[in-house]
Design brief:
heterodimer; A: alpha/beta; Rossmann fold; four-stranded antiparallel β-sheet; 22% strand; B: alpha+beta; Jelly Rolls; 16 helices; 46% helix; 19% strand; globular
Chain lengths: 311, 636
Amino acid sequence: METDVIIETRNLTKTYRDFWGRQKVRALSALDLKIYRGEIFGLLGPNGSGKTTTTKLLLGLLFPSSGEALVFNNPADDVSKNERIGYLPEESYLYKFLNAEETLDFYGRLFRLPTNVRRQRVRDLIEMVGLGWAKRRQLKEYSKGMTRRIGLAQALINDPELIIMDEPTTGLDPIGCREMKDLILDLKRQGKTILMCSHLLADVQDVCDRIGILYQGELKEMGRVSDLLQVRDVTDIQTTKLPPEAEAEIRRVVERFGGQVKSYGAPSASLEELFLKVVEEGKTHPGKRYQASEQATGDSKPFEANQKKEG
Amino acid sequence: MVLETQFPSLTEWFKPAALAWIIRIGSFCLIALALGFLITGVRMGPKRSWAIVKGAIKNAFSDLAHLSFKRIFAVAMLSFKEAIRRKILIGFVVFIIVLLFAGMFLDPSSQDPARLYINFIFWVNNVLILLLALFISSFSIPNDFKYKTIYTLATKPVRSGEIVLGRILGFTLMCSAMLIVMGVLSYGFVIRSVAHTHKLTSDDLRYVATTQEGAQALEGKTSTVKEHKHSVYLSPEILKDPAGKTVMTEPTNGHTHQITIVGQGKDRQYKLSGVKNMFTARVPIYGNLRFRDTTNFDTNKGINVGDEWEYRSFIQGNSPAALIWLFKNIKQSSFPNGLPVEMTLGVFRTHKGNIERGVMGGLAIRNPDTGLMVETHLFESVEFNTKRLLVPLKIKPASRPQVISSKTKLSNGNVVHDIPENKLNQAYAQKAEFDLFKDLVTADGRVEIWVRCLDPMQYFGAAEPDLYIRAYDAPFALNFVKGFVCIWLEMFLIIVYGVTLSSLLSAPIAILGTIFIMITGVFHNYVLQLANGLTEGGGVLESMYRLLRQDNMITELPDNVLGDVISMSDQVINYIIGFVGYLAPDMNQFANSEYVASGFDIPWNLMTIDALTALAFFIPLYIFGYLCMKLREIAA
């Protein structure tokens, strides 16, 4: 399985120093990490915990103070690894004077893609990120969300095996967020390996297979999301809506088995789901106000529980 | 045209220059690596730094092998678009405005309008394109870092070397495109600005007597245009059957016009053409100058007449002293009509003499193999006016021919003759008419031109380029293009410096650095003199010490510790100045617009040396830029 290790860091440490070489901040200390082919790995942590430093070290944008970072078994400062990597930075650092087509064409040329492949891919990616209507506009006229989308497209121009994403959902509206998460899952289905770092825990929980939690430059926790989040002494049952008289019956059954019902009632959905529903409703019934209260009273069918987690 | 520093021929220049280059580039690479080691060492400690530098050397060769023109071109096109979309074409608008208003400030009555307009237009182009090149090249890479676009770029499989080279190529393409358009407009501007014609009617001409019995000629002046007019002379031969004939006006302000005579008798009309012979590109063949002193010995220098400018050396009039130019490779096939000789002599008068007339001189041709010398012309010299003489194929001597040898006194007192005295054959001189190529030019094409001053107590002075054989005229437009190629080379160097320095420094510092290097380049010779302690007044601190004490420049330094400290510190400073001096190319070498303005073809030899010099600076600068990018922590 050793060949399936896409990213490996050994004792990776980064210390920022001032001009005179005095230590300012230890941004990352002794990180040992392995990321395998085909998984989505999430690096979590509060601001300044070393997530971005880790990605920059892996991309060769920073040199490690000690330890080593290997990508595809090559040192991180080896340029040729970039042939197989797509990188979506925290903000889309793109040339504002180019338009969407020119941007993708430029990055495509850096991968020496044959002209016909490059053109086709530029068309497909612009289509995929939904910027067909604005492809001739210079990026300086783009909104934040549009810039994010074109940033994503450039990261995929070489059909990479490994995609490194720094805060992929920042700057996107909830629909964009959902699309981004769907896309990440789609990329995983295509067999790609993804490393994303984020402090938006919900996003990470929705898509990641494994996570690592960094705090003050140190790895505090790492493992499979399902394992880490599983609450071992609680059992969760979800059913379709039951009549009120079922409650007493169910409580009795639970007590017979030595358990205790902690809560009973309709589960609350996430705000994200509500938002997506409102927008969907707006599309199908334009001009009509969304009847949120009616649905929340429990008279109509309840929200489907969020079952997005992938094993 | 004054050529103070003689440029060597390409073959003479190449070998020592290439050797010096290899030595310097070797030390340069070592210094670059040491600097890289030092900078990363300060930041990360020596052990880590050494690993990075070692890795960089290894990677450098791998990167070189993987350089992809496709990627370089992609970065170049990006730079091209960046320059255009960042409104660099505003420079172009400035250029047009300058051209539109320039006509108001340039003197139309100038004695030499060609020089005025050409010098002006080259100056404008030079300043504009160099400023543009400076600004666009210095901002690109720092902006990549400032706006972090480098993150996206550097995470693609693009090498540091490709980024630097692509940037240089892109800006060079951009500026070249601008320079081409500006060049075409400039050419049109120069030609259009001096274009004019004059009117000539029968009333402007009057009959004058000639030396021929009963024959009359017509003489007069054209109308005044651009504050000058031309004299016209129609000889009796032309007047016999004037219809359809063409004659040239006398030259004024460096040009003539062609007159076409139309019609007969009272209906006769004169049609004048546009400007002729104003723009030339003479291709001179220069000889080697030596002097013959009043005692008949050859020397390297003539007399100093007290001029501080030691460019020209003088010979005394009415004496055996002569200015002797030896020419090589003069073949009859190249000169079917004789040798066209042009000279601009310095004249030094010890008394005013006949002020109405110039000092008289004689021009003779000597065969260096046989020693036969034949005087072909007696001429009247006017100081600093170009004299044109044609040595015909058949020569009737202007004075008695001689057979003489040329002799030199060696430092040990021995005398050497170029032809032993016993081998001088006076029979060569026994002819009434001589054939230029049979009698006076050797079989291998060597010939000597001797110039003497005939008036007593007057002096002629010359430097080597003051007399030349005008081989042929190259097309002026081509010469104009050559002038622009020299500007292009300067522009290219500025782009290379701008991009290279900006790969290490921030944009404003890179601009300052480039300007500093260019200024050092303009004063290249002085800087090297300073570095080698050849300037009067000593080094920097020594001069400052004297300035502060208000001492004379030749005052000795104090013979104590202070004096020693000053001298030693100056040596260190000189070493640094020397190092900086070699970082900059000699910018004067590229400033060749004077050739175009003076009507001389820019020699291909010089163009090649310039191009090779630019290349010689480009290569180490590129390596330096590459190393800076490579060793730089992009996200730091």
